[in-house]
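Reopening this one. Same input as before:
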Amino acid sequence: MKEELIFANPHRRIDGWIRANPRRIDFITGLIYTLFCVSGTLGFAGAMSGSAVLSIFAIALLQTVPLMVRRQYPWAATLVVAFGHILQLGFDSLVLPSQFSVPIMVYTMAVYGKRWQSFSTLALGLTGAVLATFSMFNPFRDVSDPTPSMTLNMLVSFVGLALVVTVSWTFGDLARTRRLAMKSLKDHAERLEKERVMERALAASDERNHIAREMHDIVAHSLSVIITQADGARYAAVNDPQIAIDTLKTVSGTGRASLKEMRRLLGVLRKDEEVQNRPLPGLSDISDLVELAKNSGLTVQLTTIGTPRKDLPAGAELTAYRCVQESLTNVLKHAGANAVAEVILGWTYRGLELQIKDDGRGAGALKLEGAGQGLLGMRERVALYEGTCNAGPQSSGGFAVAVYIPYSED
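Same output, byte for byte:
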């Protein structure tokens, strides 16, 4: 298949090689042009002396050899070509095929040279047009030629040579503009590609942090409830088996709910559309969360103040749910026995003000190992929605978490 494409598009292969090897192309074309001009010079030097023939060959070489390195050393090549033409002025009315190197070098400098070098080459070309005109039509030498005819010939010669130089420079300047535009587009495409790579890396990092927060909320809350209920069932089994049975039901229910959330989270990683499209927990599920905490032996009350002015985004509701979940988990783990908690959902004109308070051990919870990870995760979640999260011990005892999530204004 690859060989078929190569034979089917040979011009693309040739064009690709030419674009990839500009210096080789310059050397090959310059060498061919030099050989052609040197051999063509024999027709002009047939009736001249030996020294004159050698001088003409040297001039032809000076005017053509620099074309082999015209893109590698454009300014130096231009100066050498210009020097060759200055030497040619010593031979009156001499026209050589190597003089076609002038428009080639003017074009080259307009494309690849610096801006001042480009305009300098244009000025050299126009000056050369004047000098060449006087070399071919010297009014002080051809006194027999009528003045009007001489003037007309000089004018036509200068206009023609100047037009060749100007057109060559114009096409070169247009090619320079296109080359710079293509380079700018290429650089822009490379920057976009780098930005896409960075964005993918940032997105992957953000997703890892999101998954880590989800895993912490699910695992920490569920295991705390399960451990608390399992310990209670173990002690209750001796005196009241019925309490142990009810407690084990709570343990199994918590385990199933956590397993369901774990499957949803893993479904996101597998890009399982059916699992991924399941609804996420929101504000309406906070009451179930409070009931689960009650079944775990915690005394907790849910209070709602005010009504929402508008709905929060699904992600913001999930954030509020996770904050309540993490706070109640911390109460179960750190507040101590007989602690009483309260969850307050307060709706204001600006957004949702969420409070979770307890009368447990308070500051002692912050000193326990791993206690700060959940609070850090809550702050990261809330910050995504331009909210705030403050947590710390209360002056009257216990611990309090205050979360504010503003409405997203369209």
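So the earlier flakiness isn't reproducible anymore. For the record, The chain is about 65% helix and 10% strand.
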